[in-house]
Amino acid sequence: MDWMSSFLAFPVDEIPFIFLVLLLSFAVHEFAHAVLADKFGDPTPRSMGRVTLNPRVHIDWLGMIFFLVIGVGWSKPTLVNRAKFSNPRLMGLIVSFAGPLSNLVLGFLSLALFLAMQQFGWLEGMNAGVQAAILTFMRWMVVQNVFLFILNLIPFPALDGYRILEDLLPRPWAQKLHQYQQWLFYAVLLMFFIPPLRAVTLGPIFALQGDILALFTIILAPIFGVPVKL
User: pLDDT per residue over 2-44, tens digit each?
Assistant: First the structure.
């Protein structure tokens, strides 16, 4: 299996955990978009069956394969008609930010649960292999959700960060930015899929993952009274 490891972004034996983590994390992310758009008056997500936590509704299988192979992928985007909102820019901004925020919250809660399992002995009495599997799953829940939070806030087309930037910019600037959307999208593809270019351009952004995990540690370590180690 060593030859396969060279083609994958994750260890082969941990691929099942990554797969399950992405199923849950993508579902929570897209549900957050859908439920807020629905609350704000847009019937589009509900009419398309997206106001649900069922992962099957939200998964793009090609995007899942890309994620498992190269470490970056996508879920099925939740379509939103902002014209249905009473305040399209403000409510659109909230709906766009809800997805990444849901991943950040999920990552934080997963870390808290990870620590509680160890601190309070919730896994005692279980088979050693089962304990290791649960802790591996929880560790990836933390790491990948923080990664998804950062990834989706990058202000590039097809990511939530681009939509957020459009809503924050003055309308003339947003319209000007929209004119270059196609070229920006191609630039994104180059940055994501050419490793040397990704290391130079996106590497510093993804390095924020460690800073966020460090912040989680500062918050949770005093609560559980133990060092936080993933």
Answer: 444 455 778 889 999 999 999 999 999 999 999 999 999 999 9
Three-state DSSP class for 71?
Answer: coil
Q: Which of 9, 10, 13 is nearest to 1 (CA)?
A: 13
Question: What positions carry a catalytic annotation?
Answer: 30
Q: Which of 158, 169, 187 is nearest to 177 (CA)?
A: 169
d(CA 64, CA 23): 9
Helix or strand run (H / E) with residue 38:
helix 15-39
Instruction: Read off the pTM.
Output: 0.89
E-only strand ranges, 94-165: none
Q: State the burial class of residue 112 (Cβ atoms within 10 Å of its Cβ: 0-12, 13-18, 19+).
A: middle
Instruction: Fill in the DSSP letter of residue 83.
Output: G
The domain limits of the chain are 2-224
Q: Report the alpha-carbon distance of residue 156 to residue 226 in Å, rounded.
A: 39
Tokens 């379509």 identify what position? 79
